[in-house]
Amino acid sequence: MIAVYLFIALVIIQRVIEVVIANRNAKWIKAQGGYEVGKAHYKYIVALHGVFFLSLLVEVSLVNKSFMLWSIIPLVFFLVAQVGRVWALSSLGRFWNTRIMVLPGAKVVAKGPYQYLRHPNYAIVITELACLPLIFQAYWTAIIFTVLNAVILTTRIKVEERALEEVTNYQEVFDKRNRFIPKYEE
């Protein structure tokens, strides 16, 4: 059981490091003349992710299931998502953030996974919120937070795309790309 808690703790530490990076990037964008949009719903995203980890820890503690052979499937998806996360974040560089930060006149990043779809990082978060609990048979956490995340992302993506369309070349660059699933041209 200690290995389970250690694994979850490592994911939480990763998220804390990402928040530190996001705050640093936000300061940089603001210094360049950028600003934040979507502040009203950001607190719900933070709360969702915080309660997700709490729920996961509680359910894992109560369920007390052992690692099962089929757990390898969500584990592989989760680990692949981590590679995708690093790829997406490093592709955006200083423009990556947990908040919606926009810089008027900036050219949107269209490299890395962004050359294939509009929101690879959100696709990764969707995968993580579903797969991490499934590794440990925390089914309620997987179901509830996948649904809640979908609700929040519906609002967030609209706000983000609208803001980027207003002050960057977002529409021009991403017009022919899907949000979550790569589109293959024939």
Give a description of the structure.
- The protein has a single domain, classed as Four Helix Bundle (Hemerythrin (Met), subunit A) (Up-down Bundle).
- It is mainly α and 186 residues long.
- Helix content is 68%, strand content 3%.
- It is elongated and about 50 Å long.
- It has helices at residues 2-31, 39-63, 72-92, 120-135, 139-167, 170-174, and strands spanning 35-37, 100-102.
- It starts with a helix and ends in a 12-residue tail after the last helix.
- The protein has a two-stranded antiparallel ribbon.
- GO terms for molecular function: protein C-terminal S-isoprenylcysteine carboxyl O-methyltransferase activity.
- One of its GO terms (cellular component) is membrane.
- Keywords: Membrane, Methyltransferase, Transferase, Transmembrane, Transmembrane helix.
- InterPro entries: ICMT_MeTrfase, Metal_cation-efflux_comp.
Describe the main β-sheet briefly: 2 strands, antiparallel
Number of domains in the coordinates? 1
CATH classification class: Mainly Alpha
SSE string: HEHHEHHH
Q: Could you report the average pLDDT, rounded to the nearest whole number? A: 92
Going across the major beta sheet, what is the strand order? 1-2
Number of helices: 6
Distance between the termini: 50 Å
Low-confidence stretches: none
| Number of beta strands | 2
Specify Rg, calculated over alpha carbons: 17 Å
CATH fold-level name: Four Helix Bundle (Hemerythrin (Met), subunit A)
- Using the 3D structure, state the CATH architecture: Up-down Bundle
Name the overall outline: elongated
What structural class results from the helix and strand content?
Answer: mainly alpha
The helix content is: 55-70%
Beta-strand residue percentage:
under 5%
Keywords: Membrane, Methyltransferase, Transferase, Transmembrane, Transmembrane helix
Protein name: Alkylpyrone O-methyltransferase
InterPro entries: ICMT_MeTrfase (IPR007269), Metal_cation-efflux_comp (IPR052527)
Pfam families: ICMT (PF04140)
